[in-house]
Amino acid sequence: MLDQVVELTAQRLRCRLIAFRVPDTVADQRADRVRAEAKDRPHTQLQPETLDLCQWTILITNLEPSRATVSDICCLLRLRWQIELLFKLWKDELSLDDWRSQQPYRILTEVYAKLLLALLQHWLFVLSCWELPNLSFVKASRLLRKHAFHILMALPRLKSLVGCLQSILPTLKRCLIQKRKARPAAFQLLARAFP
Questions:
Q1: Which among 79, 78, 186 is positioned nearest to 133, based on CA atoms?
Q2: Is the distance from CB of 139 to CB of 121 less than 8 angstroms?
Q3: How far is CA 25 from the centre of its chain?
Q4: What is the pLDDT along the chain (195 residues), one digit of tens a residue?
Q5: Which residues share a beta bridge with 58?
Q6: CA distances from 89 to 63, 142, 161 (A)
Q7: Are 168 and 147 in contact (CB under 8 A)?
Q8: Using CA atoms, how far apart are residues 115 and 98, in angstroms rounded to an integer?
Q9: How far is CA 50 from CA 61, 80, 115, in A?
């Protein structure tokens, strides 16, 4: 029944449905997580179909088969996680979700200031090392934070700011992610899928 609903949905949306079975260990981990979440909701009964779905990864895409293979689509799915990592970077490194006040306008001011800082940080990444596929934004963010006081002191004078940035920005190119064999990083997956 469920596969018919998914198939009809894919047809209506003119999408391509890709479904593949995951290894038993992954299915068991998913089922354990679903059971644990079901315990937190005492008035909700766990459906057998939900546990059945733990054995599958189901993807719906509008990419035509001639434009992307199943492995390409799985690679792109994993790359989507990079967006989540950017938000995590903002929360962890810039403390975007923490504030010091209880007053709404002060909280709003602090959030705006941190978003401006995130924008400035991103701009510095684009200026210095954006072309590097294996750049670690976490390492680069921490390096910029170490030099934040120098950048702040150089802000009033353009010549000083340019000199400061010319000395700091090249060091960002050393903030790299190492290649991994067991669980390849996103840049490795991209290089394999789209040579």
A1: 186
A2: no
A3: 24
A4: 555 655 666 666 677 778 888 899 999 999 999 998 888 887 878 888 888 889 988 888 887 778 878 888 877 787 788 788 888 888 888 888 888 889 999 999 999 999 998 898 888 888 888 888 888 888 999 999 899 899 889 989 999 999 999 999 899 889 998 888 888 887 887 787 777
A5: 19
A6: 30, 10, 25
A7: yes
A8: 12
A9: 22, 24, 39
| Phi and psi based region of residue 4 (left: phi greater than 0; alpha: psi -120 to 50; beta: remaining) | alpha
Give the distance from CA 33 to its chain's centroid.
Answer: 21
Contact at 8 Å (CB) between 128 and 172? Answer: yes
Torsion angle of C-alpha atoms 95, 96, 102, 108, degrees rounded to 10:
150
DSSP state, residue 57: E
91: how many CB neighbours lie within 10 A of its CB? Answer: 13
pTM of the complete model beyond 0.70: no
Please give the torsion angle defined by the CA atoms of residues 58, 22, 42 and 39, in that order, rounded to the nearest 10 degrees: -150
Q: What are phi and psi of 50, to 5 degrees?
A: -65, -45
Are the C-beta atoms of 46 and 34 separated by less than 8 Å? Answer: yes
